[in-house]
Amino acid sequence: MEKHTILAFGAHADDVEIGMGATIAKSTAEGARVIICDLTKAELSSNGTVATRKKEAQDAAHLLGVDERMTLDIADRGLYINEENIRKVTTVIRKYKPTAVFCPYEKDRHPDHGNCAKLVEEAFFSAGIYKYQTEEREAHRPSNLFYYMINGFQRPSFVIDVSEHINKKINSLKAYKSQFYTNENGVQTPLTDGYIDTVIARERLFGKEIGKKYAEGFLTKKPVLLQLNNIIGEQP
What we know:
By secondary structure, the chain is of the alpha/beta class. It has one domain (5-232): LmbE-like (Rossmann fold, 3-Layer(aba) Sandwich), CATH 3.40.50.10320. The chain has helices at 15-29, 50-64, 83-96, 111-126, 166-174, 177-180, 195-209, 228-232; strands at 5-10, 33-40, 68-74, 100-104, 144-148, 158-161, 215-219.
């Protein structure tokens, strides 16, 4: 049986782990192929360097069982909705031909996260247009586009039980020592003040909503198909 391919976009390294790290761990454990694409090198990050962030991102991806992680050369704080950037993201979608694409939800305190969502939406549509030209010429239209949460807290369209994989999410976040921990030369940011605990508390709350220990929440702009036994089956 052919593996399903999941393609997860983030504006910066660590975005994907914050929003859906445990879902990625669950997906890879169940045999899915997962690709992460960070749109920027996060060169304007208050802490760490480009080289540090790259090493941390690869370590985190390894912990989650990710098949491949890449970084595009879009400038940090330069995630503008223009033809050049749309083509770059479209090329990635066509190259890996995912079944599902994930990106940040547009309502977030960081403008780059919202712009990442808009950019991926444009590329998601363009990837399926036969005459739209990119380096990867074969058109591909993924089945679904889903949104994960980073800083915001929204009522999700659906949640995924990640109780058995939450520790991998936590470990993947801890891999970003430059971002979530401070040293004598570091800068205090919202990420260095118990941020990981806040993220895990959110997943605990989502889990409580479905009678599980932990869950990750996602949003979608179109209905999600459920099988009848998912609806009428025994509830927790």
